[in-house]
Amino acid sequence: MALIELTGLSKSYRKGEHVVTPLSNVDLSIEDGEFFVLLGPSGSGKTTLLNLIAAIDRPDSGRLVVAGRELSTLSAGELASWRSEHVGYVFQQANLVPVLSAYENVELPLGLLRLSRDERHRRVSIALEAVGLSDRAHYLPKQLSGGQEQRVAIARAIVADPRIVVADEPTGNLDHESADAVLNLLRRLNRERGKTIVMVTHDPRAAAFGTRRMHLDKGALRAEAA
Questions:
Q1: Closest Cα to residue 194, out of 38, 3, 55, 52?
Q2: Mean pLDDT score of the chain, rounded to an integer?
Q3: Distance between CA 127 and CA 119 in Å, rounded?
Q4: Rounded CA gap, 132 and 129, in Å?
Q5: pLDDT score for 173
Q6: Quick check: 225 pLDDT over 70?
Q7: Model confidence over 32-47: pLDDT tens digits?
Q8: Mean pLDDT on 81-96
Q9: How far apart are CA 224 and CA 226, in angstroms?
Q10: How many Å apart are CA 5 and CA 53, to the nearest integer?
C-alpha cells in the first residue's frame, strides 16, 4: 500500500517578473518501507517535491496523500502537528544550534510533543545510540566532525519516531568516508527500523543506496534506466 501518493501535483513560484514551475502535473507513488531516491540536476524541482511531501510547503493543485491524510485539507497548525508526528527532515547542512549540545539539539523536536522529562530522555538516548553517538551526547557542534554533525541531525530527525525520513542532499558537504557512514545509517534505518526514506541527490553514488530511483527534470519524472 502506498504511504505517499501524489496525483497531478503542480507547484509554481514567482521569481521577480517571471513564474517558475518546477513541478507540473506530477504523479508519484512511494510504498511504505521504501528507500526512494530522487535524482536530478540543480533546479529540477527535487527539493520542492521533498518539501511538499514533508508538509513544509503546499501544492498549487493536485492531490497529496501522505500516511492516509490529504495534506491540502489541513490548516497550518494541523500541518505542523502532523509533520512533527510523521516526518523527520535531514538537510544538506546539519543546521545544529551551535550553543546546544548534541543531546539538546536532538531533543528540540520533542518540545512539540507532550512528553514527560523521562520519556524525552529515553527517546534522545535511543536516537543517539542509533547513530552511534551516545559518547558525544554532551559535545557542542564545533567539537564534532562534519560527518558526526550530520549523524546528530539524523538523530534529531528520528527522535520522534516518524514513519518517514526525508533527506535533502544529506551527503553534499561530506567527504567520501563520512558520506558512506551517513548513507549506511539511512540504509540501516530503512532495513532494520522500517523507516520510509525519501532522499534527493544529484550523486549517482549516493543514489545507489536506494531501493528505487527516479529522475526529475523540468517537472517530469522518469524511472532510472536499467
A1: 3
A2: 91
A3: 12
A4: 5
A5: 85
A6: no
A7: 999 999 998 777 888 8
A8: 91
A9: 6
A10: 9
Residue 173: name the closest of 204, 195, 148, 208 by CA: 148
**Contact between residue 3 and residue 196 where contact means Cβ atoms under 8 Å apart:** yes
Integer Cα distance of 153 and 159 in angstroms = 10
For helices 176-193 and 146-158, angle between their N-to-C axes, nearest 10 degrees: 20
Cβ-based neighbours of 135, under 8 Å, separated by 6 or more: none
Residues 178 and 146 sit within 8 Å (Cβ to Cβ):
yes
Cα separation, 213 vs 36, whole angstroms? 6
Contacts of 67 (CB under 8 A, 6+ apart): 3, 4, 86, 163, 164
Query: What is the 3 state secondary structure string of 55-105?
Result: CCCCCCEEEEEECCEEHHHCCHHHHHHHHHHHEEEECCCCCCCCCCCHHHH
Using one digit for the tens of pLDDT, what is the confidence trace for 121-175? 999 999 999 999 999 999 999 999 999 999 999 999 999 999 999 999 999 888 8
Q: What percent of the chain has pLDDT over 70?
A: 98
Secondary structure class of 51 (helix, strand, coil): helix
Cell 523536536, located at residue = 109
